[in-house]
UniProtKB/TrEMBL annotation:
Source organism of the structure: Populus alba x Populus x berolinensis
Cellular component GO terms held in the UniProt record: plasma membrane; plasmodesma; side of membrane
Signal peptide span: 1-18
Name of a matching Pfam family: X8
ATP-binding in keyword set: no
Protein's cellular compartments: Cell membrane
Protein name per its UniProtKB record: X8 domain-containing protein
Lineage summary: Eukaryota, Viridiplantae, Streptophyta, Embryophyta, Tracheophyta
InterPro entries in UniProt: X8 (IPR012946), X8_dom_prot (IPR044788)
Keyword entries, A-Z: Cell membrane, Disulfide bond, Glycoprotein, GPI-anchor, Lipoprotein, Membrane, Signal
Superkingdom field: Eukaryota
X8 domain boundaries: 16-99
Membrane topology field: Lipid-anchor; GPI-anchor
Keyword presence, Signal: yes
């Protein structure tokens, strides 16, 4: 109940994140590599970084595409990555790793 209510409030406020869709690790790795090479702050997902755990391609991809999306001011089209990512009103922050968000 709280999670749904929290999501509704964030949506009302306009808080949005970019997250990777459920796809194969090889596809998500390509998205991760692109986002990191195109301006995302990927330092936090490097080993010993605050967002390294969980050490999965999808978790690292989520952080990278969201960083790119936020750095581009949540501009239209900056959370697509050839169909591998999508905009979400649910905060993907996990295990003490805070994903940045901007209120639109």
């Amino acid at each position: 109940m709280f999670h749904s209510f929290h999501s509704v409030i964030l949506l009302w406020l306009g808080c949005t994140w970019c997250v990777c869709k459920e796809m194969s690790d090889s596809v998500l790795q390509q998205t991760l590599d692109y986002a990191c090479g195109a301006g995302a702050d990927c330092g936090p997902v490097h080993q010993n970084g605050p967002c390294f755990q969980p050490n999965t391609v999808r978790a690292h991809c989520n952080y990278a595409v969201n960083s790119y999306f936020q750095r581009k001011g949540q501009a239209q089209g900056t959370c697509d990555f050839k169909g591998t990512a999508t905009v979400s009103a649910s905060d993907p922050s996990i295990n003490g790793c805070s994903y940045p968000s901007s209120v639109r």
